[in-house]
């Protein structure tokens, strides 16, 4: 998919060949007469859990029965709950369950577990031909071991898209003379958001400065990591296990101007737990979020004085003007706990089955996750699987997946490499600026309530001095996070 992915996958392949292929081409250590039982921990809930459980049952009744593998899946609740359960198991805390054979994991968590020596080397069980079936950058992300071998098996991925309340967009667009094409860049989104604030403010001439926010985004950390990558800067540059922090002033300022400034002025907003919640309450018209969030985009806006049904538009996520088209690569993979050859081999056999195009797309049709094999990433393959299995797919999920598939050729997926204290550094990106924007917006609203204009109320927060003060504190917070010991 991209050059850097191919280079690193080559290193991973070299590690595979160097350290041997214990489970590939050799006699299987499994015995159908003495089946091995595998426990899988994940964070799927609702329809996602139902889809996963259905596939596990199918595996057990077919390939699992034939080879002697029985899989049991358990949801640990949220991602945070799963991470806590894994850490408790590794540390042997009183009352903690034993480590599962397989568990869902993001790269940062997997890196921590790998550092504890608790992950199986998946390169022992995959040959070159098998590795080449997967999207290059997904394999790259999983090669987190110091020797370049694979530790995270790609099972389901996502990226970001933009979703828009089409019904309420259309009268505004006609009145303001804007179009969906204007939302292709972050600068364009900021300009449209200002126009929307001013237009909604004009609808109530007797009430000054009551304009509404147009746009919001989930995952502020993605905004930093991908935004900087689009501008030609890798914020966390990892080479040979060492991380170099890159936060050049001018590029960071560009991010500040297209996030903090419109947040403080009320052009952007964040009110509920997720931005899809804000669309549902009518507080936003558009947001950038994960492909997996498509199923939560509301069918109607619910207001205090009633509601109305809405249609939607799915677009690729905006990029910075004149920048490279990078998009986030995210979504947990599966890791295998270090145990014995029989359990590790069986775990990889299940994961290879689960990620076959047919099975992976069936899961994606429910979850909104992207498949991980190259052959599965197209509208044509998706349509084929839907037809063959007579699947009923939610239109929003289908439109989300096909929007990404159709736009994949023009974009490069990116995720930063894992490093020590990566989780702490990401939390700084997630909360440092967004928390400050929320607090300063409250001060602006207070000034508006005192009769000041928006320009007057926001003025103290959008100065050069304000940026410099925040920028210094932001850099300090990042440095403290990455240098944290213990």
The stretches of 5 or more residues where confidence is low (pLDDT under 50) are 1-8, 19-25
Mean of residue pLDDT values: 92
- Please compute the radius of gyration using only Cα atoms: 24 Å
Label the structural class. alpha/beta
Main beta sheet:
5 strands, mixed
Oligomer: single chain
Count the E strands.
15
Q: Choose one word for the global shape.
A: globular
Strand content: 5-15%
Q: Biggest sheet: strands side by side, in what order? A: 2-1-3-14-4
Task: Tell me the helix content.
Answer: 40-55%
Distance between the termini: 37 Å
The number of helical elements comes to 20
General description of the model:
The chain has 486 residues and is an alpha/beta fold. Helix content is 48%, strand content 13%. The chain contains 20 helices and 15 strands. It has a 5-stranded mixed β-sheet with strand order 2-1-3-14-4. Strands 6-9-5-12 form a 4-stranded mixed β-sheet. The longest helix is centred in the C-terminal third of the chain and has 28 residues. The protein is globular, with a radius of gyration of 24 Å. The relative contact order is 0.15.
What would the keywords be for this entry?
five-stranded mixed beta sheet, four-stranded mixed beta sheet, disordered N terminus
Summarize this entry quickly.
The chain has helices at 3-19, 46-61, 63-67, 79-91, 107-115, 128-131, 136-142, 166-176, 186-202, 220-230, 249-257, 260-265, 275-280, 341-354, 357-367, 379-389, 395-407, 422-449, 454-458, 464-482; strands at 36-42, 69-75, 102-105, 152-153, 160-165, 215-217, 236-239, 242-245, 286-290, 300-303, 306-309, 312-316, 326-328, 333-336, 412-414. The protein has 486 residues and is of the alpha/beta class.
């Amino acid at each position: 998919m991209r050059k850097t992915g191919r280079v690193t996958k080559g290193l991973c392949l070299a590690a595979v060949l160097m350290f041997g292929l214990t489970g590939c081409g050799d006699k299987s250590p499994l015995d159908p007469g003495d089946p091995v039982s595998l426990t899988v921990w994940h964070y799927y809930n609702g329809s996602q859990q139902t889809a996963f459980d259905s596939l596990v049952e199918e595996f057990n009744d077919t390939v699992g029965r034939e080879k002697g593998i029985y899989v049991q899946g358990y949801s640990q609740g949220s991602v945070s709950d799963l991470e806590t359960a894994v850490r408790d198991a590794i540390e042997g805390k009183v009352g903690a369950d034993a480590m599962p054979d397989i568990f869902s994991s993001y790269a940062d968590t997997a890196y921590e577990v790998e550092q504890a020596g608790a992950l199986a080397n998946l390169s022992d069980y995959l040959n070159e031909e098998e590795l080449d079936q997967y999207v290059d950058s997904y394999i790259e992300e999983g090669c987190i071991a110091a020797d370049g071998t694979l530790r995270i098996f790609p099972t389901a991925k996502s990226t970001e898209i933009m979703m828009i309340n089409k019904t309420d967009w259309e009268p505004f667009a006609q009145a303001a003379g804007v179009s969906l094409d204007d939302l292709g860049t972050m600068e364009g989104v900021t300009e449209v958001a200002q126009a929307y604030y001013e237009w909604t403010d004009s609808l109530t001439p007797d009430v000054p400065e009551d304009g509404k926010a147009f746009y919001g985004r989930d995952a502020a950390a993605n905004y930093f990591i991908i935004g900087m990558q689009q501008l030609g800067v890798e914020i966390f540059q990892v080479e040979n296990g060492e991380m170099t922090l890159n936060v050049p002033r001018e590029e960071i300022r560009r991010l500040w101007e297209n996030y903090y400034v419109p947040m403080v002025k009320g052009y952007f907003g964040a009110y509920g737990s997720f931005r899809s919640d804000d669309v549902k309450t009518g507080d936003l018209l558009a947001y950038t979020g994960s492909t997996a969030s498509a199923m939560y985009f509301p069918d109607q806006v619910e207001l205090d004085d009633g509601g109305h049904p809405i249609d939607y538009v799915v677009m690729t996520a905006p990029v910075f003007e004149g920048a490279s088209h990078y998009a986030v690569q995210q979504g947990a993979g599966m890791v295998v706990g270090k145990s014995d050859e029989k359990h590790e081999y069986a775990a990889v056999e299940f994961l290879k089955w689960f990620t076959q195009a047919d099975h992976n797309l069936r899961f994606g049709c429910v979850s909104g996750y992207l498949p991980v094999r190259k052959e599965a990433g197209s509208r044509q393959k998706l349509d084929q699987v839907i037809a063959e299995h007579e699947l009923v797919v939610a239109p929003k999920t289908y439109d989300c997946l096909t929007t990404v598939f159709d736009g994949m050729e023009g974009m490069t997926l990116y995720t930063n490499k894992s490093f020590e204290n990566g989780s702490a550094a990401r939390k700084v990106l997630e909360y440092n600026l967004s928390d400050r924007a929320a607090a300063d917006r409250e001060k602006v609203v207070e000034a508006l309530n005192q009769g000041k204009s928006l320009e007057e109320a926001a003025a103290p927060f959008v100065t050069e001095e304000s940026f410099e003060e925040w920028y210094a504190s932001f850099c300090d917070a990042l440095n403290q996070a990455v240098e944290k010991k213990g």
